[in-house]
Amino acid sequence: MPQVLSIELYQLLEEKLGKEEAKKVASAIEIGLDVIEKKAEAVALQKKLELKDELTKELATKADIAKLEGEIQTVRQEIQTVKVDIEGKLRLYFLMLLFVIILVSPKAIDLIGKFLGVIK
Fold first, then answer.
1. Residues 68, 51: one domain?
2. Mean pLDDT confidence for 63-84
3. Do 109 and 119 fall into the same domain?
4. Using CA atoms, how far apart are residues 107 and 101, in angstroms rounded to an integer?
5. Residue 5: strand, helix, or coil
6. What are 53-63's pLDDT values in tens digits?
7. What is the spatial distance between Cα 30 and Cα 27, in angstroms, rounded to a whole number?
8. Residue 1 pLDDT grade (very low, low, confident, very high; cuts 50, 70, 90)
9. Structural domain tally of the chain?
10. Do residues 55 and 75 both lie within one domain?
11. pTM of the predicted model, to two decimals?
12. How far apart are CA 76 and CA 74, in angstroms?
């Protein structure tokens, strides 16, 4: 264990208490400081572990991100399916509307023919 007490402090203890008592007091102080240091290290480790646990609960893990990406991909596929369905229905509605216009208005046939370049 490194020397904890300075030489000046040890000499002061020797002057006030005597050589043998100074050794005992210095030893007791060093033991006390060693115990405090070990306790501080244990508390610091415990706090680090508690903080790690709290952060782990708050942060997304790779598994969480992968799960979310999978869900997003599923939603995209569902949106694409709905888009294709809507486009198909719109085409059908357009063709039905065009057919109804042709049936109801004889002039519509002439107009469509002009657009297509069949009738001049």
1. no
2. 94
3. yes
4. 10
5. coil
6. 888 888 888 88
7. 5
8. very low
9. 2
10. no
11. 0.46
12. 5
Which residue blocks in the chain are alpha helix, DSSP H?
Answer: 7-17, 19-58, 62-104, 106-116
Amino acid identity, position 9: L
Residues 17-34 as b/e (b if ≥16 CB within 10 A, e otherwise) read eeeeebeebbeeeeeeee
The mean pLDDT of the chain is 88
Query: Cα 48 vs. chain centroid, distance in angstroms?
Result: 20
Residue 47 shares a structural domain with residue 79? no
Give the CA distances from residue 25 to residues 37, 82, 91, in Å, rounded to whole numbers and listed in that order.
18, 84, 97
pLDDT at 77: 96
Residues 6 and 44 in one domain: yes
Task: Give ∠ CA 30-34-40 in degrees, rounded to 5.
Answer: 145
pLDDT band at 112 (very low <50, low <70, confident <90, very high): confident
Same-domain pairing of 49 and 65: no
Both 29 and 13 in one domain: the answer is yes
Pairwise pLDDT comparison (119 vs 15), residue with the higher score: 15
Residue 116: domain span:
61-120
